[in-house]
Amino acid sequence: MRYPVLIFILLGSFQSIFSQSHELKNPVNQIIEAYDTSSIVAFGERHDIQEITEFYLQLFRDTSFQKTVDDIVLELGNSLYQETLDRYIQGENIPYEEVRKVWFNATNSLLQFGPGGSTAILIKNIRLINEKLPDEHKFRVIAADPPVDWDQIKEAAEFWPYLGRRDRHFATVIWDEVIDKKRKAFVIMGRRHLFRKDPKPVNYINLVDLLESRLDSPITIVHIDSNSELVDPKPQLIKIANSSIRHQKVYSDFELTYGEAIDAIIYLGPLQPILIEPFSAQKDLDLLNQRSQLLGEKNFQFNSYDYLNYFIQKYGLEGVKRFYEFLIKNPEIIDYNEVLVKMVANDSEDQAIKKQILESMRLYKM
User: Fold this and answer.
1) Of 314, 246, 252, 304, which is closest to residue 277 (Cα–Cα)?
2) Could you give the CA distance from residue 96 to residue 93 in angstroms, rounded to a whole number?
3) Comparing 8 with 298, which gets the higher pLDDT?
4) 14-267: which CATH number, 3.40.50, 3.40.720, 1.10.10, 2.40.50?
5) What distance in Å separates the CA atoms of residue 161 and residue 298, rounded to the nearest whole number?
6) What are the residue ranges of CATH 3.40.50 in the chain?
7) Is 5's pLDDT higher than 50?
């Protein structure tokens, strides 16, 4: 599932970022160099983005990274299945139906769009990378999501504590499996989980501050940011301390600056969601309906942000029309939300698509 995040960031002119002379470096090398002073590099991402996933794989295939990093921590993996994940990543012949429980049964189960997201891609490819590595350099993949067992959840009240204590569980897992074992880790989580001094922490726990209280040196926090025409060439990692945005607010309603919150921003160019086919297997839909009925007394529905993006990726401008035609014929399948649809329009760099979305929204309301 791609988590749509609406961020109001007062960035000003990015041209000023480059007013200071600096040598452009390969972002892969910069991340590896960060481990000279940090045992954890945390990457604040947008979920299920093609360019971000490709960057991870480029990083994981780098020989120096392989010799430096022990663990890759995934937000969207259910820790209930850590033993299965360990065996699979180390090359054992584990049935796919068992492995997929790692992501399909995570706490975000009802926010997923289809079976082929970034978590699945990364797990499969890390296994392939490990096949070519000596034992001392094989990665361990750590599932950080709380160990919810959907088969044992009988009412909504039993589920909400898992969802509401996610960041506390992230901290426990990283503390136990990485910090206490003196290992080095690359942590992948949504951007909102990875701020220092966060005045409004997710789940009431400031994950970074808690972990850094246990570490001898700070975590290196890198956030993905959207494309800027003034950032060239790409990819490029910009250290906040060397940029003019260090004094600017992360969010317009936060008293928190970039310099206080994170260490670097990485630009990979225009970002596109991974083309994920929606769930169609009846057994998957039955499970999703069961979970949705349990939590909200209604059948599972796809969110409109993902479904509109899916149609646009497949059909371009024509996809906007097809989305609304599909919505009119199948209103029970999509949970239509104008705010999310507007976010698709705002995210699009194609002015024709943006215009078509806004016009289709207007006509749909008539």
Assistant:
1) 314
2) 9
3) 298
4) 3.40.50
5) 21
6) 14-267
7) no
